[in-house]
Amino acid sequence: MDLVHTSVPARIQALSVVIAGFGQSIIITTVTTFILVYLLEYVHLSVAAMAVVTSIITAAKVFDALSDPIMGTIVDRTRSRWGKMRPYILFSALPVAGLTTALFAVPQAPQTTQLVYFGICFFAWGIAYTACDVPYWGVIGSAFSDPAQRNKAISQVRAAGSISLGVATLGMPWFAALLSDGPTTTAHGWTLAVAVSSFAGMGLYLLAFVNTRERTRPDGTAALTFRILVTNFVHNTPLLLVLLGSTIGFGRSIIQAGGAVFAVVAYGSEKSFTAIGAAVIVGMVVAALATPLLLRHMTSKDLMIRSSLAAALLYLVMFLAGFQNFALLLAFVALSGVALGIFMVIQVTLIADAVDDMERRTGIRNDGISFSTLTFTGKLMNALSVMVFGALVVVSGYHSGAQITRHMQNVLFASITLVPAASCLLSVVPFCFYRLSTPVASGNGSSATA
To answer: Where do transmembrane segments lie in this chain (predicted)?
Structure first.
């Protein structure tokens, strides 16, 4: 069986991965939230050029999603004095920080040159970020042998990520303005702000290398082959059920994909989405911190099923209540953030349980390829959300400059309420067949088979 290095106390490891997750979240939030704004408002790309940028981003995301399992396999086959995951945490930090800065440092040049520059940087950034993200989640699953400690660490990581999301979303425009030359925000100001934030964020991320220790195989154990890893992966039924249930539940994230557009159609300004986004973040933070307490009274499988059913009911009631009362809408959105936060914690917990179970049954621990599916499903859920919301925007007839009608408002409101309701309800089915579940906290630190 695997050995566990205990030279670093669990509380230090937990604090380190939480701070590391906070730093890492600054990177992903900055890129996903502000890259298009930067290119439009500060690089001044044309409409035709933005169409090319959209194609580049879409192609890169598809490539990025497909590269996750490949990266997971590479991680699982790695053998070093630092383990199999920590080396990638160490050596990916600088490239991620540098490439994130490069994305916001498009040179003043002909647009063709700018597009080529952006395309190369964005693809390279995606590869580097995958190299830092997959092993990060893997080391969390490996560092804590006690499920209760692991669940608490995961919940705190998710909470820190949500807080980081809010800090970056609200703070980066202000920071860019502060570092700009003159009274208005400039492209140079964005470059400096992103550079400082990226290198600081990845500096914090390195704590996941410095202060964690992963479970490693005894000396002399044969290296895992690609065939063994893939075979064990496809036979890990509990893990595959988590992936299926997560993908079907893509509607949970549709408000993030389309909330800003809905705010424009329903309330006349995308600024309303600031309050909507804040409500989601507050709900997610509360849920992430509360989930370990809930796990004292029910298994992770039961909590996933019950929270998904509650979310489906919540979205249905939200639709019936309508969107005319903005304060009431924010209350519903905050509750939906609670459901989303619970899902994000339990999803990682269920994957970790599946990895532990596979190790008990086969003697093989494949953290890399297993946790790569966490990032893969996250990207797939986001892609499905964008696709479905985009299709419903077309159905509604809305486009820039269009006269807003009640039909448009109703269709887009249904897209962020009824679609998630149906999605959450259907996602329960795979989770019902998940045979493993972290037991109700009892101090034994083991997993039970339902």
So the answer is: 12-39, 45-67, 88-109, 115-138, 159-177, 189-210, 239-267, 273-295, 307-323, 329-352, 380-399, 411-434
Residue 440 to residue 434: CA distance in whole angstroms:
16
Length reported for the chain = 450
Q: Could you give the residue ranges of the DSSP H alpha helices within 179-299? A: 187-205, 207-210, 226-234, 237-248, 254-267, 272-294
| C-alpha dist (Å) from residue 125 to 152, 330, 379, 431 | 31, 35, 15, 34
How far apart CA 107 and CA 43 sit, in angstroms, is: 8
Q: For residue 300, what are its two tokens? A: 């992770």
Which of the pair, 9 or 93, is modelled with greater confidence?
93
Please list, in sequence order, all residues whose beta carbon lies within 8 angstroms of the beta carbon of residue 401, skipping any fewer than 6 positions away.
none
Plot region of 434 (φ>0 → left; ψ -120 to 50 → alpha; else → beta): beta
For residue 106, pLDDT over 60 is answered with: yes
- For residues 117 and 109, is the Cβ–Cβ distance under 8 A? yes
Both tokens of 431, joined, read 């989770």
Residue 440: per-residue pLDDT: 47
Tell me, what's the pLDDT at 48?
A: 83
Extended beta strands in 18-111, E state: none
Instruction: Please list, in sequence order, all residues whose beta carbon lies within 8 angstroms of the beta carbon of residue 64, skipping any fewer than 6 positions away.
Output: 126, 127, 129, 130, 379
Is pLDDT of 202 > 90? yes
Res. 208 pLDDT band, cuts 50 70 90? very high
pLDDT tens track for 126-156 = 999 999 999 998 898 888 878 888 888 888 8
Sign, CA torsion 236/242/248/251: negative
Q: What is the mean pLDDT of residues 66-71?
A: 86
Half-sphere exposure of residue 52: CA atoms within 13 angstroms, side-chain side = 15
What are the structural domains, with CATH classification, of the chain? 7-215 (1.20.1250.20), 231-450 (1.20.1250.20)
- Among 253, 311, 5, 273, smallest CA distance to 145 is for 5
| Residue 28 CA to its chain's centroid (Å) | 9
Token pair in block for residue 160:
């820190």
Query: What's the CA dihedral at 115, 120, 122, 125 to 10 degrees?
Result: -160
Angle at 240 between CA 298 and CA 339, to 5 degrees: 40
Smallest CA-to-CA distance from 431 within 275, 308, 333 is with 308
